[in-house]
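Field: sequence (string)
Field: structure_tokens (string)

Example rows 1 and 2, in order.
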Amino acid sequence: MLVQNPDIWIPAIGATLVALLLGFIFVSLSVEDMYFLFLLEFIVAFALVLKYLVQVSNFTDMSKLKKIFIASITVVYVSNQYFQYQIITERYADSSTGFFDFMKMRLEQGFQIESLNTGWIGYMVVWIFQLILTYWIGWAIFVPRL
């Protein structure tokens, strides 16, 4: 079922929905301490789904597809943080803390590596590294398959 005229909405909406789903799956796995075991598999799955959506939509403007890819990776990580907030506030029955207060508390507590607390800078470095690594791996898988 290919669309005759190129349509950007199919990959854009599809990538957003898949990104939200992946954000929730990452949170569910991270609660069970299995996050890093399945990260690469989900990046590959995301790239393959986006490839399929691009083929169905007949949309081939790579600069716009790159923007969709970057936006959807960002949605994965932002939704991951939001779903973590939802799970933690539900688990500890703390409905008084808002999402931005939750993020502020996470940054204030810092990123812990064994007994070393790297502070907010550690969190920022880890998040940036995750975004860049996800982009590189995902784009390397996505582009050759078009």
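Row 2 begins here:
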Amino acid sequence: MEITSIKIPNGNNVYLFENFYPDDLLLQLTKICNNFNAESDDWQVASWTNKRYNFKHIEYFNELLFDFYENFSCDMESILNNKIAFEESVMWIDLPGLGKLQPHVEGPAGGTYLMQIYLSDRTEPFNGTTIYNDNKEVLLQLPFRNNFGWMFDQATGVMHGRHSDVSPNLKRFNIMTRFR
């Protein structure tokens, strides 16, 4: 795993992760992605759009990731200068037609530390998360590529969204993880 830290103008940090999950865990997560079918009982359409499906087996999913995230939390303590604890992960897929995600910050329920890791068989240089300054001007455009993602040290303080719609024929899998 490679970690890069970027301090944004409001003083918060964005951590970028390359090759985040180890190969054995990545293989198990990829298998879940490869079995996606909108008609499957394993996936539930989001209440606010028919272009996002959530993986329904949250308890199984969190058990699969628990040990990895416990170790990751310990490793991040020295980087964050703070102790963090894994709360939960959720997985979803965004489909073409979802549209842009407007700049926003997470509410208090977003947790203190928020992470998103992408899973995909394609690289899209302009389809990852967009990081904005407090005036909603683009600071960073992250790529969307397999086993890459980010973490905010203050989920309520980093303005983010997605500057573009999901690319045609892209199945945009995401794992969102919250830490306290």
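free_text_note (row 2): The longest strand covers residues 86-94.
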